[in-house]
User: What shape does this take?
Amino acid sequence: MKFSAKQIADYLHGEVVGDPDVTVSDFSRIEEGKPGTLTFLGNPKYTPNIYQTEADIVLVNDDFVPDKPIRATLIKVPNAYSALASLMEMVNQQSGQKSGREEMSFVSSSATLGENVYIGAFSYIAENAQIGDDSKIYPQSYVGENVRIGRNCIVYPGVRIYHDSIIADNCIIHSGAVIGADGFGFSNENGVYHKIPQMGNVLIEDDVEIGANTTIDRAVMGSTIIRRGVKLDNLIQIAHNCDIGEDTAMAAQVGIAGSTKIGEHCVLGGQVGIGGHITIGKNSQIGAQSGIISNTKEGSEIIGSPAYPVKSFFKSSIIIPKLPEMYRQLNALEKEIAELKKNLSQRE
Assistant: This one.
């Protein structure tokens, strides 16, 4: 599928600088640009590449002014990176249209499928499940009893969605994710663990994306809630009864213990661990590998394990390599003080 610079500019409401009729059929990185592709310049450090790239079209911010001639046609937009994302999403939607049931899939007679739904081979849609219009269930996925999936959702191969889970509209769940498995609930009586039945469910609101092999446990009672716009990377564990606030993003290998509440617009770096029954204030920024064991205030910027404020962490990081020398100096000072005290006592 080919698009001209003019067509792309019209779609993005951008301005063409160069040949409006040049066409592209693929995307490329600016430093690896090839003829017939579109790329973008979003980070100023890649500016030298725009003068060398062989890509035919480059998206640039509308305040970009070249220092020398550029072979490629430019399309000026307010935000090149956002424009690229919008363009790629449009192409992805046009190229990924699937509908209908493939052979060897199973759909219960009591399940309800909307219009233009796709069910891939070897998928299993259980009793009373509901799948909304234009949603896609790729091969080898499991949709359990009473599960509700909204409109325009994508469930990639090998996803497991346990009974009673609710997934709203425009959600994406990547391969290997497990939604609604039992939470880690046990009572210890005389050294023996007894399972506590997990009677709740998982509720995922609109526009959520869940990465590959991420697991979200069902609640003991009530719901584990992933609120609108949350973005979860691969290999994340969210325990029972957690509540993840709107538009929060988490990088890979984050682990969140049970009944923890994460505020809206938070960002968690890779391998962050958060203890149970605590609250993370909205707009918090938590650095990679941080360990959080207590509540954080709104707008916190913290890092470390246990975590503490970013500025304090970096000040400490500068001091740590100097500790051996400081220790030697401290010992020397202690000896000098002891000697001075001895001399003073002798004079008295």
